[in-house]
C-alpha cells in the first residue's frame, strides 16, 4: 500500500473483511488505532488520513466535503482493486460519516463494488441540518466546541504550539461540514448501521433513524452510553457491533 491516504495499525493475517475508517473533524487516522486492535485479527482495517494533519501536515486541507469524498473515492478504488475479492465496509465518525457516505455513493456510481455496509457514527443523516451550526465558526468557537464535546485533551488545546499545528485542519474541516448540503444522491444499496451515544450533545438519538431513508439495503441502530465521543469508552462494544454487522453480509453470495 503506497497511498498517502491510508494507514494500517495491524497486520491482517487472514482473509476477513476490510473496514475503511473515516475520522471526525480535526481528527486523524490514529483515532481508529484502538478500533483496529479491538476487531478480529483477520480484519484488514484501513484508516483514512486526510491532508493537513500529522504526516500530511504540509498539504492543504480540503474545505469542501464533496471534493474530499472525490479524492478518497479515487484512492480507495485503486486500493480495492489490489484485492478485489475481499468484501469491505466503511465506518465514519461525525464528519467522517458524511465523507464515508459520499465516498460510497461515488464508488457505486462508478459501477464499482460498493461496501457491504456503512457504519455512520455520531452524525445525523445527510439531509439533516446539524451541520449549519458550524457554518460561521471562528477559531474561538471551534475550540469551545472541542472542549464541550470532550474529544480532545484540554491540555493539548491549551498549548499554543499544538494549536498552531491543529487549527488549520480544524478550520478546514468545520468549514467543509458547514458548507455541506446534501445533493439528493442515493440511496445506497449498502445497508446502514447508525451508531450514537445516548448523551450526544450534537445529534439526538431520535434523529439517527433518518439514515434509513438513505439506503435500500436495510437499517440498524446501535445506541451506546456516552456523549459525542462515546467510542473512547465503549470500544469493545463498538467493535462487537461492527463485527456482527459486517460479518452478517460479508460472505453472502
Automatic annotation (TrEMBL):
Annotated keywords: Hydrolase
Record has Hydrolase as a keyword: yes
Pfam families in the cross-refs: Thioesterase (PF00975)
GO molecular function: hydrolase activity
Domain of life: Bacteria
Residue ranges constituting the Thioesterase TesA-like domain according to the UniProt record: 20-246
Family: Belongs to the thioesterase family.
Name this protein carries in UniProt: Alpha/beta fold hydrolase
